[in-house]
Amino acid sequence: MADDYQSPRPIYMQIVDKIMLQVARNELKPGQKLPSVREMAIESGVNPNTVQRTYGELERMQIVETKRGQGTFITKNKEIVEEMRKKLQFEVVDQFISKMKELGMTEAEMIDQLHYYMKEREGE
Amino acid sequence: MADDYQSPRPIYMQIVDKIMLQVARNELKPGQKLPSVREMAIESGVNPNTVQRTYGELERMQIVETKRGQGTFITKNKEIVEEMRKKLQFEVVDQFISKMKELGMTEAEMIDQLHYYMKEREGE
Amino acid sequence: MADDYQSPRPIYMQIVDKIMLQVARNELKPGQKLPSVREMAIESGVNPNTVQRTYGELERMQIVETKRGQGTFITKNKEIVEEMRKKLQFEVVDQFISKMKELGMTEAEMIDQLHYYMKEREGE
Amino acid sequence: MADDYQSPRPIYMQIVDKIMLQVARNELKPGQKLPSVREMAIESGVNPNTVQRTYGELERMQIVETKRGQGTFITKNKEIVEEMRKKLQFEVVDQFISKMKELGMTEAEMIDQLHYYMKEREGE
DNA sequence: GTGGTCTAGACCACA
DNA sequence: GTGGTCTAGACCACG
User: What is the pLDDT averaged over residues B23-46?
Assistant: First the structure.
């Protein structure tokens, strides 16, 4: 459903990405309950194993907490959420700068390119 | 050598990336001969099969031409090289914009972030 | 099995040809699962690597899609299948016309030859 | 020059093809002298080894005779030339019929296709 | 179970 | 010497 079997990115990580994004945008709020593994599997048209792995990964990152017998919840720890948000941003910007530098571009050129392609996207 | 065995990106694609970058920066010039499969294998510390795959991939992209018994050469077709260069740039910028938008940022904020992290990197 | 080790055409391409033909003749239908790499390897009496290459090639041609952990499937995109069918036909006819013209033959003569050799083959 | 380093067909066979065609069309006449290996190599922009192999192949087919110290000549044996001409034709037609049959086409359909693509080529 | 990558080592035709 | 193909066998992440 929201997953791409072709992409080189593993499906379970695609779902991780999606959830992290929803958290970062506050669409999923601290303390909110996530769908059960089975529900999410059906929703996403994916094997329950895959969702299990997604939740495991999110738990490792402390973005999510599993309460036995109750389900899986977004952490209430706002520091962690904030940290994650910053890390997401940082990674995007950092990767952009690194790659543009590899291509031999200066900061001014990066901004030029940015303007140029933003215009091309207008109306989206 | 220049490859990372941990990266999820396959080694043969890492070498593809490296060569494409060298072409984009004109460090590898149109018509120039690449090291033979065996030489490159030793240089890169990988199996010749892996390099073979790299060269095959580059040939599919028309960045490289192979002449039987003579070796593998950067294409002399400058249009293809230019197109590739643009595509590389576009992908980087496009991905940046998409991800930043997903994070809910405006163009002004993107440029802010860019400035901010560029300063942090000063001296590199 | 269905491959010819003497032919100048690589084995993996012979298998590609065979599958494309089966698709063109609708013996392999859109969405249908192909044998796993290992199964096909045994069926065809070749190394799994060789089949892997075959499937990779077919995927590049978009005739086949691979879903992680599930297997390899004929594309459901009927346009691509139809396009492939036409391309196969075109290539055969085009090559025939080109070569016959090189031999200095007119259209009438081509048809004559066609009739003549078709009769010779009767009963096949 | 007249050779294609990209084609899967070996260069020496591409030259063989070219010469056979010239003989079939009587552009090269029985008894006529071919250029020396060195001349032909320069003409064709190819390694002399490659031309050597070409002449060897043509000699094996008895289309050409080498007279020591004099050079290489098209055979005067018109039967062989005629046989070759027929064989060339046969192979083209035979391959066409085989492949069209593999695609599941009847004789009528073959002729249809032939007409169709001949029209498309008009003006060439 | 699936496909994907990699190594090691071999053989081949071609230039 | 060059690239191209193939086998055998291994390991991996993924579903």
Answer: 96
Structure token pair of residue C76: 């459901």
Q: What is the tens place of the pLDDT at every residue in C2-53?
A: 456 667 899 999 999 999 999 999 999 999 999 999 999 999 999 999 999 9
Which among B8, B25, B100 has CB closest to A104?
Answer: B25
Strand F closer than 7 A to residue B65 Cβ? no
Q: What value does the mean pLDDT take over residues D68-85?
A: 92
Q: How many structural domains does chain A have?
A: 2
pLDDT tens readout for residues C75-116: 999 999 999 999 999 999 999 999 999 999 999 999 999 999
CB contact A21 to B (< 8 Å): yes
- Which residues from D are below 8 Å from C24, CB to CB? 103-104
Residues B94 and B67 in one domain: no
The reply to whether B53 and B90 lie within a common domain is no
pLDDT value of residue B8: 85
Q: Does B63 lie in the same domain as B34? A: yes
Question: Residue A71 gets which letter from DSSP?
Answer: E
Smallest Cα–C1' distance to nucleotide F2: which residue has it? B69
The residue whose two tokens read 């099969």 is B49
Spatial separation of the C-alpha atoms in residues D75 and D81, rounded to whole Å:
8
Task: Give a yes or no: residue B2 inside a domain.
Answer: no
Closest residue by Cα to residue C101 from C93, D31, C60: C93
Residue B32 included in any domain: yes
- First-to-last alpha carbon distance for chain D, in angstroms, is 22
CA dihedral sign of residues D68, D73, D74, D78: negative
Residue spans of chain A under pLDDT 70: 1-3, 123-124
Residues D49 and D100 in one domain: no
Instruction: Give Cα separations from A37 to A19, A53, A123, B34 (angstroms).
Output: 14, 10, 38, 51
With contacts defined as CB-CB under 8 Å, which chain A residues touch B117?
A: 90, 93-94, 97
The CATH number assigned to the domain holding D26 equals: 1.10.10.10
Predicted TM-score of the model (pTM): 0.89
- Give percent above pLDDT 90 in chain D: 80
C-alpha to C-alpha distance for C99 and D25, rounded to whole angstroms: 12
Give residue B95's domain range.
79-121
Residue B102 lies in a domain: yes
Query: Residue A8's pLDDT is what?
Result: 85
B48 and B86 in one domain? no
Closest CA to C56 of C45, C65, C47: C65
Q: C68: which chain A residues are within 8 Å (Cβ-Cβ)?
A: 5, 10-11
Same domain, D66 and D83: no
